[in-house]
């Protein structure tokens, strides 16, 4: 039995047509991870995440690869671009958007991990579909 797995996500320009949701592909559904989850994401200029979310047990690291955008982190807004890395701890509400004038789609990897296996952590997300994005004020 091997202790590694390989999956091809395709080039950054193909991420928008991912199978999970438009613009999001859960890598950990394609390969058998135990302690870490990864998603490959893309958002077109002017688009944003559909909702805020936080995690009770997981922390996330966002690694931005392309485009220009912003992250709402509780009451703060942080500018992001290729090369920006943002760690978000437990309990922090977050939302993302690609700036309307971004020259290309905002693309990033989201790596999530906790102090237990992902299976034991289960679904621990908290959604807030009513809270407006911080740039919509």
Please name the defining characteristics of this protein.
GPI/OXD; mainly beta; Jelly Rolls; single chain; 3-stranded antiparallel sheet; 137 residues; 5-stranded antiparallel sheet; Cupin_2
CATH topology: Jelly Rolls
Helix-strand makeup class: mainly beta
Supply the CATH superfamily name.
Jelly Rolls
Number of domains: 1
Q: Identify the strand order in the major beta sheet.
A: 1-2-9-4-7
Give the end-to-end Cα distance, rounded to a whole number of Å.
Answer: 54 Å
Chain-averaged pLDDT: 88
> Element order, helices and strands?
EHEEEEEEEEHE
Q: What is the overall number of helices?
A: 2
Q: Judging from the principal axes of the Cα atoms, what is the shape? A: globular
Q: How would you sum up the major sheet?
A: 5 strands, antiparallel
- Low-confidence spans: none
CATH class: Mainly Beta
- CATH architectural category: Sandwich
Task: Report Rg.
Answer: 15 Å
Share of residues in helices: under 10%
Number of E-state strands:
10
